[in-house]
């Protein structure tokens, strides 16, 4: 395997990835001084790395703080898409979770750990807290013995060294630190080899039990582990295995068949990095080597079977020598895996901010966009989702006005009298929208409120055709609102609005004044939502 010893490592790329790793476990925004402490880098170096990552969209400045953006999830999304390019694995675990009414997870081996790469939770109020991207120690979960059964002696020695000597790997739960864990895992491996099932009896957490089976590739290697997790109030490990066995066995067989028939992806889309324009504008403050290295990392993720050095150079528009140095640096740091002459993304790329950003609430996801919009238009802005015949506010930024509408996250309003509601109804099929309008309580709230079914259906049709809706004093006298849709996966999932006092300004003038900023913000938020929701549900 090629390593950094074969070529000088790309220093800015190393340091940039180091900073991204810190954001992967940060738990929220950081100040540059925090990054200096966490990385050991000089303040001037941190400032240049942060500046480059902010200019290229991976970080966002929030006053004196710096926060990771959903763009941090893109490389992780590429890795996950390479595992499940057609979404068939995700569909199967969702179907299995529904059939069993238990949480189901899919995991891959990651050195001496287990990486969760797919999950479907049951609908109970007490659910598994782990998420896609989490890293679990092999000795404390059901999939661990499955993957450990294929470790060579070098890997076993490395794991034993980690148990007895500690680790700086960002595990989501505390790994074992007692020598007694060594014979326990070896014994669990032998049990798995004998039965074909791996059991976790409250190792990962008290009161949780889990069973897991391997999903093997055409060569017979365990490339995935399919797990079912339950609570001790419902199952013992033995009863869970007996209950889940028929469906889990069938699901694993279907997954193995899907893996066997999988084909490599097509030609990677070119991505050259921000490059010349930013370098020309920012000079030495912009680390072009970091930007180019991230472009190479992105490129090798566009094909599940990876890229050769020449293909990576062609995909990024970089000289072959430049792409080679980046790939060797990435491989030496564990962020690219060389197989033959091809480089692929390993699961470790999920440490580059994916896990932490994926924990954002929708309010946290929308807040920077709403605050920026309010700063521009000086009126309040909100995001809402459809909840039966109502809208429910999920994010809001309030303008600084003496007179303002007192609405908070969680507030519900009738959909048919609000601009956001009409946009959300416009995202439904006509029959569904008409049914919601028909059963709504259409009492007039102001003299301007539309109450007739025909009038409301026409207003929804207009919102669908126009791509936005304006409601003038139908909810409350003196209040005017304009709203636009937020799309994800080809459907309307939320709506963004600006609420302004009606005053003496004509409604059409309000539309002309606010619509451009509203639509621009909607598209920016939509980009973040699409990135966030690529491999997980939106956190409404």
Care to give the gist of this entry?
This protein is α+β, with helices and mostly antiparallel strands and 540 residues long. The chain has three domains: 4-76 and 270-357, Winged helix-like DNA-binding domain superfamily/Winged helix DNA-binding domain (Arc Repressor Mutant, subunit A, Orthogonal Bundle); 86-260, GAF domain (Beta-Lactamase, 2-Layer Sandwich); 362-532, 2-Layer Sandwich (Beta-Lactamase), CATH 3.30.450. The protein is built from 19 helices and 16 strands.
**Gross morphology:** globular
Q: What's the Cα radius of gyration?
A: 26 Å
Overall mean pLDDT stands at 92
Helix content, binned percent: 40-55%
Instruction: Please state the second-level CATH architecture of the largest domain.
Output: 2-Layer Sandwich
Ends apart, CA distance between termini: 44 Å
Describe the oligomeric state of these chains in a short phrase. single chain
Total DSSP E strands: 16
Identify the CATH homologous superfamily of the largest domain: GAF domain
Count of folded domains? 3
Number of helices: 19
| Class by alpha and beta content | alpha+beta
Parts with pLDDT < 50 across at least 5 consecutive residues: 1-5
Q: What is the fold named in CATH at topology level of the largest domain?
A: Beta-Lactamase
> Under the CATH scheme, which class of the largest domain?
Alpha Beta
Record the strand order, biggest sheet.
5-4-3-8-7-6
Keywords: DNA-binding, Transcription, Transcription regulation
Protein name: IclR family transcriptional regulator
GO molecular function: DNA binding; DNA-binding transcription factor activity
Organism: Actinomadura rubrisoli
